[in-house]
Amino acid sequence: MVTFYTGHLAVKYSPRFHALSEEKRKEAVAEAVAVFDSYQDRVILRGAYVTQAFQAHTDLLFWMYSERFEDLQDLQLALRRTAWGKSVDTPYAFAGLTKEFEFSAHPTSFDQGIPPREYLCFYPFIRTPEYYLLTPGERKALLEEHGIIGHKYVPGILTNGVYGFGLGDFEWLLSFETDDLKLLVDCVRDLRSAKARLYTKYEWPFIVGRRFKLAQALEQYN
Q: What Rg do the C-alpha atoms of the chain give, in angstroms?
């Protein structure tokens, strides 16, 4: 199994950006696009998502992955050095990696080459300490029940779970992809009835966005 490192970068346009002239803003966007283009042989951009109308703390969410974490970090450092990067805030950033799950060989959707969907629902979470003190059999039973509930929404919803242990504040990073927001609401609500829910300690922010082509996503600042 090839290990992919993932990056979810949340961006908020700041007053510094809006203080720029329209010409300078367009130049800044073009420079940011050029940075992504310069890394396209090393970093795959799964999607650029506009989160307006879903959250106030974030305007854009970038989801990217690479076989080398250094490339993910270098891309983000290069972005920060641009006029665009100096004019935005980053309320959240998350790093993760793909790894076989404890009780399932189910690969992530992006790892299988499945095309992305129109909407992304991303959220990180932490299990309670009690969860990890359960026996392997008890954990397996919890996750099997959770999986049975979630499977009802396949293929309308694609799931992408990666490990975040030790790479940040969160243990798990989950990305749902769908073309139907109603289906997303039904799925997330239905999963609340799974017993594994008793062992969820913390699970926010939820960052939801609509996928745009990169340049178009960056241009949604007015």
A: 18
Sign of CA dihedral 91, 41, 86, 48: negative
Q: Which amino acid is at 30?
A: A
Cα gap 173→170, rounded to integer Å: 7
Q: Where is average pLDDT lowest: 35-39, 110-114, 169-173? A: 110-114
- List residues bridging with 202 in a β-sheet: 126
The per-residue DSSP string of 164-180 comes to -TTTSS-SEEEEEEES-
List the domains of the chain with CATH numbers: 1-125+161-179+205-222 (3.30.70.1030)
Best CA proximity match to 110, nearest among 163, 36, 162, 42: 162
Check if 123 is active-site: yes
Strand segments (E) across 15-134: 44-50, 60-66, 88-97, 119-127
Q: What is the mean pLDDT of the chain?
A: 96
Closest CA relative to residue 103, chosen from 146, 67, 150, 166? 146
> Which H or E run includes 7?
strand 5-13
50-82, pLDDT tens digit by residue?
A: 999 999 999 999 999 999 999 999 999 999 999
Give the pLDDT of residue 164. 98
User: Exactly one of 49, 92, 119, 123 is catalytic; which is it?
Assistant: 123
Asked if the model's pLDDT at residue 11 lies above 90, the reply is yes
